Automatic annotation (TrEMBL):
Annotated protein name in UniProt: AA9 family lytic polysaccharide monooxygenase
GO molecular function ontology, one term from the record: monooxygenase activity
Pfam family, one: AA9
Function: Lytic polysaccharide monooxygenase (LMPO) that depolymerizes crystalline and amorphous polysaccharides via the oxidation of scissile alpha- or beta-(1-4)-glycosidic bonds, yielding C1 and/or C4 oxidation products. Catalysis by LPMOs requires the reduction of the active-site copper from Cu(II) to Cu(I) by a reducing agent and H(2)O(2) or O(2) as a cosubstrate.
GO cellular component, one term: extracellular region
């Protein structure tokens, strides 16, 4: 009976919530300074998820979510060690307090993660084969059963983290991601939302973090990707590698 109730709850979320729950990372702040709406971010016209962890669309979105035209050619200067804020909203119009799904529908619970990859040119169109390292994550807090997405919503779509102070200077793509787990009881069910920001890192050091590839870093059988969240959880395993620290 409990299983039937869980399945019914999941179906209700899928049918009632997912259509209005999509979201886009569309604004960044460096040490608190707003860099301008969609400047330096590869945003799509459509705000839907990727569900196939083997797809190249998992890298920087695109594909089934066509890129907004024209794609920003801005490369945002960010000092190593800076405070970086990413801001999400339901549509490219930005914040809408009257929209119950802005910045994302509250049913879409899950972790929020950030990766970086060093590139020759942050505006290059080909993003396949890049090597990514994770710099930040916000997963699950068992004591109050809350998720990174809950904290993102409470902060009106904003999440803040620190760019590692020891990474090499140069151009990077920053891949910022939400994994929504409301329909993740079986694969494919988890919904991946991500965009890539184009950065010029200044200062820094000479660290060479261990890296992973997209696709490849995630498997559909990962316990953080295929999971029933409609229960009291004692823990949650965030997908991907450990967070790099200097």
């Amino acid at each position: 009976m409990k299983s039937a109730l869980v399945s019914a709850a999941t179906a209700a979320v899928i049918l009632g919530g997912s259509a209005s729950a999509h979201t886009i990372f569309q604004e960044m702040y460096v040490n608190g300074a707003d860099q301008g709406h969609i400047n330096g971010i590869r945003v799509p016209d459509y705000d839907g998820p990727i569900t196939d962890v083997t797809s190249n669309d998992l890298i920087c979105n695109g594909g089934i979510n066509p890129y907004h035209q024209p794609i920003s050619m801005d490369i945002i200067s960010v000092p190593a060690g800076a405070s970086y804020t990413a801001e999400w909203h339901h549509t490219l119009d930005g914040a809408n307090p009257s929209d119950p799904a802005d910045p994302i529908d509250p049913s879409h619970k899950g972790p929020v993660l950030t990766y970086m990859a060093k590139v020759d040119n942050a505006t290059q169109t080909d993003v396949t084969g890049l090597q990514w390292f994770k710099i930040w994550e916000d997963g699950f807090t068992a004591s109050d059963q809350t998720w990174g997405v809950d904290r993102l919503i409470a902060n009106k779509g904003k999440v803040t983290f620190t760019i590692p102070s020891c990474i090499e200077p140069g151009q990077y793509l920053l891949r910022h991601e939400i994994i929504a787990l409301h329909a993740a009881e079986s694969y494919p069910g988890a919904q991946f939302y991500m965009e890539c920001a184009q950065l010029q890192i200044t200062g820094g050091g000479s660290a060479s973090p261990a890296t992973v590839s997209f696709p490849g870093a995630y498997s559909g059988s990962d316990p953080g990707i295929t999971i029933n969240i409609y229960q009291t959880l004692s823990s949650y395993t965030i997908p991907g590698p450990a967070v790099f620290s200097c």
